[in-house]
Amino acid sequence: MGIRKYPCFMFFVFFICCFFFTNILSHGADTISANQSLSGKFELGFYKPGKSSYYYISMWYAKVSTLTIVWVANRDNPISDKYSSVLKILGGNLVILNESLTLIWSTNQNSTTSNSVVAVLGDDGNMILRDGSNSNRPIWQSFDHPAHTWLPGAKIAYNKLTNTHQRLTSWKNSEDPSTGLHSLSLDANNSQYVIFWNGSKQYWTSGSWEWADFQLST
């Protein structure tokens, strides 16, 4: 089935230490076709879970024998035909267009440098959108938008400027990566992590970590 079954309240936690980046998308090759994937220590491409009839732009370990998904872009907006759907840079954003060329997912950033934007898949599992002329300035990164898996460097934090959380959210089931009922987020007021059921009912708490550094994201 390509991914092992876990209880719905469990989350994938993976550890990897990598430091070099591999350029994946550029203006010379800014589209993933049906039979292509982007690769390094991680791969990004079309994925169909189990017996599902839908496809998702997903990221997985490139050198792990059991296919292990660590991130899904369009988890709540699947694709029914991978052969006519594309992932590409458009208007300064990384976007997914379905078989009708309808926009179903976007990094949704206001970029003033749309002509020089590139996407890079790092060997740490971070997909970065950045200005090609300024490689040190990320416009968007997947580490700020985790799905169900935490990777070192990704954020499970609270942004006090935008009043938003980065959180892990379980799959609906083993063959449906859409947003599930359990989520892990930071309770910054009490310096603890909390698992919620159905978005509001507290299911589990780590307890206060007085020794931890709970700096709020900016």
How is this structure best described in words?
By secondary structure, the chain is mostly beta strands. The chain has 2 domains: 18-142, Orthogonal Prism (Agglutinin, subunit A), CATH 2.90.10.10; 155-218. It has strands spanning 12-13, 21-25, 31-32, 37-39, 42-47, 56-61, 69-72, 86-90, 93-97, 103-106, 117-122, 127-131, 138-141, 149-150, 158-159, 164-165, 168-173, 176-187, 192-197, 201-205. The strands form 6 sheets. A 4-stranded antiparallel sheet has the order 2-11-12-13, with no helix packed on it. Strands 3-8-9-10 form a 4-stranded antiparallel sheet, with no helix packed on it. Residues 1-30 and 211-218 have low confidence and may be disordered.
**Pattern of helices and strands:** EEEEEEEEEEEEEEEEEEEE
Task: Tell me the name of the CATH class of the largest domain.
Answer: Mainly Beta
CATH topology (level 3) name of the largest domain:
Agglutinin, subunit A
Radius of gyration from the alpha-carbon trace, in angstroms: 17 Å
For the record, what is the CATH homologous superfamily label of the largest domain? Bulb-type lectin domain
Give the name of the CATH architecture of the largest domain.
Orthogonal Prism
Provide the fold topology.
Blueprint lengths: L11 E2 L7 E5 L5 E2 L4 E3 L2 E6 L8 E6 L7 E4 L13 E5 L2 E5 L5 E4 L10 E6 L4 E5 L6 E4 L7 E2 L7 E2 L4 E2 L2 E6 L2 E12 L4 E6 L3 E5 L13
